[in-house]
Amino acid sequence: xxxxxxLMGGAIKMAGAVKAKKSKLHATSDWMEIEKxxxxxxxxxxxxFPYNGYEVNLIDxxxxxxxxxxxxxxxxxxxSVLMLLDAAAGVEEQTKKLFSVCHMxxxxxxxxxxxMDREGKDAFSLLEDIENVLGIATYPxxxxxxxxxxxxxxxxRQNRQLHLFCQDKPFVLDPGEYSLAPYxxxxxxxxxxxxxxxxxxxxxNSWDVEAFRRGELAPVFFxxxxxxxxxxxxxxxxLKLALPPSPRKAKERVVSPMEDQFSGFIFxxxxxxxxxxxxxxxxxxxxxxxxxxxxxxxxxxxxxxxRLSRPTKFMAKDRSLIETAYAGDIVGVHDPGVFMIGDTITxxxxxxxxxxxxxxxxHFATVQLKDxxxxxxxxxxxxxxxxxxxVQVFHKVAEQRLDLxxxxxxxxxxxxxxxxxxxxxxxxxxxxxxxxxxxITPKNTQTDPQKDPHMQTFQQSxxxxxxxxxxxxxxxxxxxxxxxxxxxxxxxxxxxxxxREKAILLGDELQQDRT
Length: 515
Hints:
The chain is of the alpha+beta class. The protein has 3 domains: 2-241, 3-Layer(aba) Sandwich (Rossmann fold), CATH 3.40.50; 248-346, Elongation Factor Tu (Ef-tu), domain 3; 357-511, Peptide chain release factor 3, domain III (Alpha-Beta Plaits), CATH 3.30.70.3280. The strands form 10 sheets. Strands 27-24-26-25-29-30-28-31 form an 8-stranded antiparallel β-sheet. It has a 6-stranded antiparallel β-sheet with strand order 17-16-22-13-14-21. Strands 3-4-10-5 form a 4-stranded parallel β-sheet, sandwiched between helices.
């Protein structure tokens, strides 16, 4: 889908595919070596391109089951989401996880049901799947004429235009008239098509743009990205529906994109995009004002001024210098090792943008270094990979060892590959028998977590389950969800958090963000 959008925008001249593992033609957004070797997307990619008079900032995320936490966090930097569903599979497990972040952020969602040229579920079953599983109302903006090898076209309900793939121009149908008799469509396809649209008109949800903007109603489009069927219809309408840069909540106040003063936040860090230079890039979402090259900015967490001299825009791995950027833009800034995910950058105002969570990992492993002489390189590598969100690094309270946690199990392979290729460190990752992690804080927010008696009692009782994350926050890890439920029942004065936002470290004071 991403390749088709880039092709239509003139950003590339030939569309690659994510599936062709042995092919030399890779998807533009798949720039990492492991992505090319395995034929899958591993990390999210930032792409900026023009389309029909719009300037589009597109963040392409992996669609497979074992995506990383980076994929979750990327959704916090966007104003609207295009959700791709497989016509045969419907709502998959990874879709539920990603949609939960959209729901939490109240981000408007547009659904595109892909692969309609293959045999799959009935269109009504797919709508029912979205509504029942994701809990969001739907409005089919387009409706298919047939499916599988009999997928003949699409009807746009708002424009009343019938787009047949065998015709160069669409036909306009009269309101309520859905007969396909004049268009040489077989009765086997025409009759169900007419009945479906009459049913949608009579009993379906009405279109409500305000409900869409609140994240309560999803317009649904059908098509096939591989065959470029319905993609332009979807994207043209997406640009009309998608919200412009929206106000952002900070701890102190709501920041309007129309404000004169510049502000933004770091939502992604990527090391070694250029292996020959071992660089490190922070991806910054601009929330307000105008960003200019060489401008001095204020890194709020450290309370320091810094100059951002080489801001770049991206086409996956490729980059080019920019002079100015505006609210809504995604800009890459050189990171000399000072940025953390969630950092707020301003022209001087003390702001802390919220809603950039860290998610509890679901898979765990301990690191076994093959060459003990490379211990220093390992610690440096894991520090960098942890800071960019590729993996979560935990320190065992009772032992001197490093354990790793990830959201998707594939990330262990990614970490192992990157440790070897980018840092020259060979490791074995030994699976640990855990599946649940929770950050713990005292229910009484007025007490110091380190001195709270309930926290001390709990940590002493379950020392073998206690870890510290990179921000020195206590994390308890369990082998099953029921054990956490039991702890909640027995320790009512302790809160167990599924997500948390990045800690704000100012001097020696560790301030708590909202979880």
